[in-house]
Structures are given as structure tokens and as C-alpha cells.
Amino acid sequence: MFNMTAPLTAPAYDVTAIRQDFPILSKPLPNGARLVYLDNGATAQKPRQVIAKVVECLENYTSNVHRGIHALGDRVTTEMEAARETVRTFLGAAETEEIVFTSGTTMSINLVAHAWGRKFLQAGDEIVLNEMEHHANFVPWQQVALERGAILKFIPLTADGRLDLTALDDVLSDRTKLVAVTGLSNVLGTVNPIQEITAKAHARGALVLVDGAQSVPHMATDVRALDIDFLAFSGHKIYGPTGIGILYGKRRVLESMNPFLCGGNMIRRVRKESSEFADLPSRFEAGTLPITEAIGLGAAIDYVQSLGLDAIAAHEDALMRQAYSQLAQIPGLRIVGPGPDARGAIVSFTVEGVHPHDMAELLDRKGVAVRAGHHCTMPLHDWLKVPATTRASFAAYNTPAEVDALCEAIRYARKVFRLS
Amino acid sequence: MSDDLYDEHILDHFESPYHKGRLEHPTIAHEDKNPLCGDEVHLELLVDEQNRVKEAWFDGHGCAISQAAASILTQQIEGKSIDELKEFTAPQMLDLLKVRLTASRQKCGLLSFKILKTMIYTLDEGKSKS
């Protein structure tokens, strides 16, 4: 399929060297504990390469883009457009114009819900969701459906928390206009078969939006090979800055849409009575963009590619498998979601007798940072029949010793709660 | 005031709560949740003719702090008059827990207190209307 030009012997994955790229990992916590950062699903730490790029930008070419006819404006525009091109290559998109800068996954999905949904959805049209979606890929569709009189349909989940694709043919209909699905569940860790979904959806004339917030940083996402219509993801979960995200959309789909936000940069000509809108991607980039953050995102993707996304994925897969088997040995611990073969680098669990919030607090004492709560997936927690879970999520810099530290800290929490 | 969030006092109330359950005919009942961690508390009061809390019961689930706090609250407010409970403050509630809570965990520790205050307000509203 591609011209493979990888060297015959790939360099070994050196996690010790990678950790040195992340200044925060060597800094002790306020309580003196050593940081074991397993909250990567919430946000990833930043390597010095990204920090340096952000500082370089702020110190050397702070200026607005596409405006200043001066040296700084020129430089910053070149840098930001280079970042856009980096994103395009990373996603395998056909054209740079298909890459829209947004503030994050939430904004990207809301942009589609408003600019596409409000224009094209009619009463009785159907949007296909499922119960594992994050609120960011759930509530925008629910709200636009209410407004337009569209109907939400749900792909059922299997008992172990995968999409039941045997039901997909029944859920899809000729009224289906869009399937919105996550690439990787932020709680269950389930990796969804996007290619199969796009093939079936397209056969019924529906578009597919993939929430890539969790998947894009951890597994290769080729938008053309997967035939994705819309892909949304955030910079900060892929070692980049907060406040920047991406909406990828196929050119013909983006061109059919009205603007979402109106203002500067998104127009070609404004008269008192009416306006002509700019071409892609500016049409969807009203106002001053998070320029520094976009340039930082470019540096973050360069960093990921320097390590190799496949190498990162293999490393994280090993950590997940280790965690999955070690956690399963802790009394009263129940892992939610599928077995390791259908799972990305996320393991969420409950421990009988210790509420997830108490668990997170006690793990924090041992320096282990995890997330506890409903993880912005209330429908999923209704389905799981638990109010909350504790989540460990892995990244490029985590180590097997940190998985051990997690398990040890959970045993400590059980002890505090007088369970052993 | 203990620095250890999970000292004996909290864990004892969490494991063996005072008055966990429901009243047959409560004078007033109210519930609320803490969306941050999914704590839920349902509080019921039986108020006598002298406007005193004769019995207080709670039900719910959630973290140890939220549930222990509800238990401690029901124990503390029985026998108190509604007027006395109007003077009951959040810092006093936090003192009763005897542990130092971070800002985010204060939401857990004050959930039942917040419910109590809403109830007292509702009782007053009812009176002013009748």
C-alpha cells in the first residue's frame, strides 16, 4: 500500500530516554512522592520539544496570522501553516484545506453538529450513537436532534463493552444521516472497528464522524484508508498544548456546510446586506486562532513521529496487558470493558468497598495520578450500573514499574479501608 | 483536626452509619448529588410540633467522605430546633468531620449539609405560604 522506507533495524524503544524529554516526570510532588502519571486519557504531559517550540514562538514571532504585512506576520503564518501540513500528513488526509484548527475535540464536534447538522438534518432523520460515547460526542447530537426533530438510534453494546456490530445493519436505515462513534472508548478502552462502520454507513448514504480524542494519540489513524468523513481530536492529549484541536473533514462535505462561528478571517467579502464566505479551511476559523498552540501541536506530532506511533502503540499495549493481568489479581477489583485484544491503553475498574473517589485520593498519596468519576460518560455508567470508576490510562513514557506502583497503591487503599 | 482524611472517625461512620435508611412518614425529604464523583444523599427529617428534629435519616451511596458526613449530620441534628439549624454553618459542619478536606473534597463533605439547608429553606417557604 505504501512505499516502506523504514530502516531494516528499527531503533529500540528507549523509555528511559523518552522520560528525559518530559521535565515534569523528574519533579517530586508536593508530598515528596515520585509522580506516577497514569491520567493520560485526561491530558498528556508535554515534552521539552513542544515546550521549546511554544517558547520559540512567543519569544521570536508573536504576531497574528494571515494579516501582518511584516516579517513577524510572515514567519508566524509560515509556521502555523507548516503545523497544518504536519497534521495533514499525520492523518493521511488528501488536502491541507481539509484540516481545520479548532479549540479541541468538543469544539470540532459542535462545529459539525451546528454547521452540518442544522443545515442538513430534517425531521425524522436518524443519527446513530452508542452508549460508550463521551458527552462531547453525545450531547451535541442529542441537542441538534431535539432542535431538528431528528431521531437518535443506538448501536447496542455487547456484555463486555464492545459495539455489537451484528446489530448495525438493523440500526442503520435509509434515514440514517450520520454515525458518530469514538475510535477508542475513554472508559472501556474499547477500540472500535472504524473501517467496518464507515463501509456499512456509506452503503446507506450516511456520513461517519469519529471522535479521535483517545485514539489519535495512541494508534495510527489514516482518514483515507478508513474512509472517515469527519475526525475530531485534541492537541493536549497528544503531548501538545491545550486550547487547540483539529477537525478533519472531507473537502466536499466541508464545502457543503455553512460557517459555524462568524467574524474575521472567515469571509471573502462583506457588504451591509450580506457576506461571501472564505474558502476552506478559513471558513471555519473565525477570529484569531490559538496560533501558538497550533504551532505547538505541530511540534507534538513531530515528536510522536520521531518516536514512531506504532512503536508507542506497541509499548502502551504491553503496559495495558501487564496492568490488565496484575489488576485482575487484586481482591474485589473488577475491570470494565473488553479483554486486552480489543482494548487500547486504558484500564478502568471498581474495587468493592472503596469508592473510586476515595481510591483516587489514596492513590494520589502514593504519587499515582489517575482519574475517578463518570469520565463524562454518564449513559455508559448507567449501562455499567456503577456511579463511577477509577481509570488508569497509559502513554509513551510510562513504565512497567509504574504499573507495579499502581497495583501496590491499590492494595494500600484497600488496607486503609480495612479490607485486608 | 486530623490530617488523615481516612481516620477512624470517618471510616467508622462509613462502615456503620448512624440512621441509614428511610422514615415511614418524614415531615420533609430532599436529595442531591455531587456530579464530580457521583455521590448521592437522600435526607429525611421528622419534625415535631415544637419545631424540633425528632429523627433524621439518610440514604445514599458514594465516597466515604460524603456518606460518613451524612451519618455524622443525622446524629448531630437530632433534638435540634429548626431555628438552631438555621444558625448551623458550613465551617461547623466541616469541624464535625474532624478531618481536613481539600477544596474538591469539601463538596463531598458538605453535600448532606447543603441538602439540610435546602430543606430548612423549603420548610420556611411552606410556612410563609400557608
Put the structure in a nutshell.
The complex is a heterodimer of chains A (420) and B (130). Chain A has 420 residues and is an alpha/beta fold.
Please name the defining characteristics of this protein.
heterodimer, A: 420 residues, alpha/beta, Aspartate Aminotransferase, domain 1, Aspartate Aminotransferase, domain 2, 2 domains, seven-stranded mixed β-sheet, four-stranded antiparallel β-sheet, globular, B: 130 residues, alpha+beta, Sufe protein. Chain: A, three-stranded antiparallel β-sheet, 3 strands
Q: What topology, given as strand order, has the largest sheet of chain A?
A: 2-8-7-6-5-3-4
Shape label of chain A = globular
The proportion of residues in beta strands of chain B is 15-25%
Q: Which bin fits the share of residues in helices of chain B?
A: 40-55%
Overall structural class of chain A, as computed from helix and strand content, comes to alpha/beta
Shape designation of chain B: globular
Which strand order does the major sheet of chain B show? 1-2-3
Q: Which range does the strand content of chain A fall in?
A: 15-25%
Pick out the low-confidence regions of chain A.
none
Quaternary assembly: heterodimer
Question: Could you tell me how far the N terminus lies from the C terminus of chain A, measured between alpha carbons in angstroms?
Answer: 55 Å
Largest sheet of chain B: 3 strands, antiparallel
The parts of chain B where pLDDT drops under 50 for at least 5 residues are none
Report the total helices of chain A: 13
Which two protein chains have the largest interface (Cβ within 8 Å of the partner's Cβ), and how many residues from each?
A: A-B, 15 and 17 residues
What structural class is derived from the secondary structure elements of chain B? Answer: alpha+beta
CATH architecture of chain B: Alpha-Beta Complex
From the N-terminal CA to the C-terminal CA of chain B, the straight-line distance is 44 Å
Rg of chain A, Å, rounded: 22 Å
Helix content of chain A: 25-40%
Instruction: Predict the CATH topology of the largest domain in chain A.
Output: Aspartate Aminotransferase, domain 2
